[in-house]
Amino acid sequence: MRLASGEVVLEDATRSFRVRADQARTLKGLVLGKRAGGPAPVPALQGVSLRIGPGETVGIVGRNGAGKTSTLRVLAGIIPLESGQAGCGGRVVSLLELAAGFSRDFSGRENIYLQGALHGLGRDELEARLQEIIAFSELGEFIDIPVKTYSSGMFVRLGFAIAAHLDADVLLIDEVLAVGDEGFQRKCLQRISEQIAAGTTLVLVSHDPAAIERVCRRVIVLDAGRVVFDGPTAEGLLHYHQLMGTERGGGLSLRPEGRSGIEVTDVELRDGEGRQSAVFRAGAAMTVASTIRGTSALDPRLRLELRAMDGTTLFSSVHDVELGPEGTAQPAFEIAELALLGGDYDVVLGTGERALDRTLRFAVVSDSDAGGFIDLRGRWRSLEGVK
Question: Is residue 54 a contact partner of residue 89, using CB atoms and an 8 Å limit?
Fold first, then answer.
């Protein structure tokens, strides 16, 4: 299969895995060679076909066991297909598992040389990038101790720092970025953006819709080893949430009643048609519907906050609630047009002076290329010739 540099292809790819039962441990079993019966092979890919052009940015999502990681392993050449074809054009760099390809007895520095050699880089090329890789990993003095002492987060830092400096034509990344802390994840996404700008083809597997939305223009949804959606990111993430059932959101409290006598017992998000939802389009209507129960003689104040994933408060509002005869109320906060850019956000509610104690997460999908949180609905135009 002859492919252009950066091109990725799967044609009718099929692969299954057999779950083997342990051999009998008795003397009779060893003599007779009997084995316990095992389950049928588990299909991982069932006739998957896709074509990714040079420089494309594609996210692959799906429920656990859908075939996402198997797809990347096939593309990386780690596992063979039973039938069909798979290929990537040019240099392929993959970051699929923590410590994959590392020698655990080597130091971090030594593993940088090892990984570079495995990807065809000479010592002089590695020397020129060594300090950048070490600085990116933020491992400091730990770069010279054996990696078998590293935590999972340290493995991610070193693995991604190496992968990010190997000039890949095709970059394959699995869920490993979820292990790093928030600051490092942001730095990784920024580095990925720089590689994309340089023409690298990206295939990213993640359960984090915000990460997919930030860097991918196309989403492939897998289910039971088959492609069930292939198209623009916004529509793909909506399809994924519907598949997972997370387009429905609810905040029913399962905790024992608080001792203060007043609490938010339920909160849910609703779309413009009054349906429960946890996924909204930018500019769409959203309602935060809550239920308050109290035994206090004083009517509570309900505080609502909208927060970004890093905890930044983007909006807050306080509402005086009048409890009904049975000590309950159902206040709702209505938003005519959700002025947010794509990403994940939290709605947080609380009563009186108490800490905000009810949190409900939702996702916003947006086709805008703007950065930040707020969707200003602005547009660019030229003022040339305007007096």
Answer: yes
